Structures are given as C-alpha cells and as structure tokens.
Predict the structure.
Amino acid sequence: MTGNLFYFLTFLTLFAAIGVVASKNPVYSVLFMILTFFALTGHYIMLNAQFLAAVNFIVYMGAIMVLFLFVIMFLNMREDTEQHKPMLSKIAAAIAGGILFVVMIAALKDVNTQLATTAVFDSQIGMVENLGKVLFRDYLLPFELASVLFLAAMAGAVMLGKREPGEQNRF
Amino acid sequence: MELSLLLIKALIILAVFGVTLLIATYSTYAERKVAAFIQDRVGPNRAGPFGLAQPLADAVKLFFKEEFVPANANKFLFIAGPSLAMLTACMSSAVIPFGGTLIIGGEAIHLQAIEVNIGILYVFGIVALGVYGIMIGGWASNNKFSLLGAIRAASQNISYELAMGMSIIALLLVTGTLSMRDIAAQQGQELFGISGLNWNIFYQPLGFLIFIVCAFAETNRVPFDLPECETELIGGYHTEYSSMGMGLYLFAEYVNIFVASAVMATLYFGGYNFPFMNQLGLPHNVVTILGTLVLFGKIFFFIFFFMWVRWTLPRFRYDQLMNLGWKILIPLSIANVIITGGAILLKQELF
C-alpha cells in the first residue's frame, strides 16, 4: 500500500516536473509547478514529517506560487508573443543542466541506503516538537542567521519597491 | 474490530461532509432571510413552508441554465477554476473537532473526521490554497475585468494571510500545541472554578479581533468583497460564469464562511465546551452531545455575524483595504505576539 503510494507520488512528481519545462504556456508551467509541490508535500507526509509538509504547503504552494501566478497573469504572456531565445543560450542551458544532473548522480551514487534500520529509527523525528527542539537547541545559530538573512532580503525588497522622491505614479 | 473502526471513521467523515454542505446550503437561505429582516422585507417565502425549499429551487435553476464558455477562453482551466474553489472549501472542515468523545461499549469515539498533529496548519494551508480557484477561473475567462478581480483576490488573500498567521502564532504561544483536538480540550479546564470556561478569547482578545477581520477578508465577504465589486469590475472574477460554474463559486463562499465560523468557535470560543459542563453531574455521553449542540450554536452565531456585518457596513476602498492589512493589522499582530510572549515569561518568573 505505502510502496504503491510512493511510486504513484514519484510518478506524479516527475510528470509534473517535466510538465513545468515542457509546457509552452507559462501559466501551465506554474500550475505544473504547483502540482510538483503538492506531490512533494505527499512525500513529506509519507516520511511522517507533518510539520515540513504543512510548511511546504503554506509557504510554497500558498504564498510563493500565488505570487508567481500573479506576475505571469499580469504580464499575460502567450505562446505567440513569446520571443525565441538564441541557439547559443539554449545550448548553454542544456550543458549547465546536464552538468548539474551528473553532479547529482555522482553525489547520490555513494549514499548509504542501509543507514536507517527499523529497530533504532525514531518515527516521531519529524513531529513539530522534535523539530523545534533540534532547531532551537542544536542548530540555534544557523537558524538565527537565516532569520537575519530574511530580514536583509525584506529590507532590500522595501528599498527597491519604495518610490523615489519626485517620482510619478507609473501605473 | 479493525473493520468496525474504519466503518465508524467513514461514517464520521460522511457526516462532517454532509453537515458542511447542508449548513452551507441553508446559509444561502439564511442570508436572504437575514437581509430581508434587516431591510424590513419578507424574504423568500414561496418555495415550501417559509421558503425552506428555496436553496433547492436555486440549485435546480442553476443546473438547468446553459453552461456557457466564452470564445478564446481556456476551456480546461475555465471549468477547473470553480471545481478547485469548491474542492478546497470542502477540505478544511476535516480537522475540526465537532465534539468530545462518545463512549460506546467501552470504546471512546472522537467526534472528529481526522486528527493530525498539525491541525491548525492544515486549515491554514487549505485556506491559502483557496485563492487558486479564483485566480485560475479569473484568468481563464479571457476577460480583463475577471483578471483584475482575480488579481485583487490574490493580493488581498496574501496580505491578510500574514496578519492571520501572526494572530494564530500568538494563540499557539498560549496553547502550546498545533492540534485542534488538544486546543479544544484545553479550553474545557476550569477558570475561576467554572469548568469549561477556559476559553482562549480571555487570553487573546486582540488576537481574536485580528483573526475575525482576516477571516472576513479571506472569505471575500463585505466589507472586503473587492474581488467581486460590481461598480468597478462588473462581477469580478466570476463575470463570465453562468450556470453551476457560478453556483460553485457562490456556494464555496458559504462553505468557507461555515469553516471560518467553526475555526473561530474552536480556537477562541471554547469549541464544544460550555460553562458548568462538569458540574451538572450529567453522564459523559450526554455532556458530549450537549457540547456538540453548543458548538453548532456558536457556529450559527458566527455565520449570523458574517451576514449581520454584510448588511450593516459599506465596502472598503481598495487602498483602504491594503492600508488596513499592512499598516494596521500586521504591526498590531506582531505587537500581540510580543506582548503574549512577555506575559508568558512573566507568569513563569512570578508564579
């Protein structure tokens, strides 16, 4: 049952991820990306990481992808108005993506899959209480540094979005 | 044993789903009756006794109208939009505890469809997902007014989700758990010697105020119904919809109102707990059934409150809506989190 669910979710993830790249219409790309995140949320739930699943759901599907869809709908890009990219950039993108793929395969080749045994594995490790303890006890400094990074990004966004003195309303 | 447990769960899930749809159906009737009462009219009174069959008549009318798809609209997404709106609306009532436990044959049965460790985040995630139905439908209509309505809906929902999330964080500081069942059960403790009155509203009045304002914005209700503002946008995101596509959008709004009312009643107003619940000396099962009835009473009050506000307050302007969300509610909710945290620390130090 669980195994079948895993294969179904994996198929859905890969199908949607390919759809993101392959669809001509950018709105379809965004919708496929939402489906990809949805399938990933399913994977998190199967790993019993409920908190990560919920956060992935709220932050990526609920906020970030809405903004993506928002921007793409506002620009109202269509297949016929999309300008063709030069051949050189297509080749460069293919090479860069291919190299990344090779690196990932190389990194995953030596992974020890026998690390977790059912006898010693704590199935409650993904629960929000345990995650909170790990984050605020063992990894407090990286966690706080990440929040400083977020603050910097937020201040940057406010700076960029702010109307300069004397600037007229552009819309 | 295993089979009967599954059967009971299936029954509870079906019951929760059915109750959600039934209450949403009769909310449409209640809305028209409340509007009529406030405006000193009679309201629907032709279909059935007191007009009680009016929702059925409306549904039949909507089903028999032509399902019209505009030229150059994206057909698949045009139909997917209202379906998605309805789907997401119906998903969130699954984690709401509609009562305590019924003890039948020594077996404790929780009156809740599914219990997840992160119940409140689940509701929050589904609410965040609700905007896709509106956005996809608005974009697929191939109409500028629909698109503008959809974009308004998206920006409004994202803006108010922030303040809503912050008000929930303050609540979580008080309760210390994310599970809806635990939050509801905690509120059954004693306050000043009265059992079942340990409601979170007494600890989080400001948080509740922020939450209810955000709930109005998230359900696109007056005074925040700008996505479907007639004077500026014709009909907003559902301009091009007719028949049941339109019906699903309107119906999803009522399901959302029900869910928002149920969440507010559970998080802040004690859920299924009522004052003196343990001092009456009644058997456990009777208290549970009474509690469920009390919870529905609270939910009906909030649904009435939604309608009351609709026929009392005028609509905001769009810039006022954004100012309220970003410049008033978000700073207030952050202050609420800080004050709550400080109060909890102070309590630990002093008592």
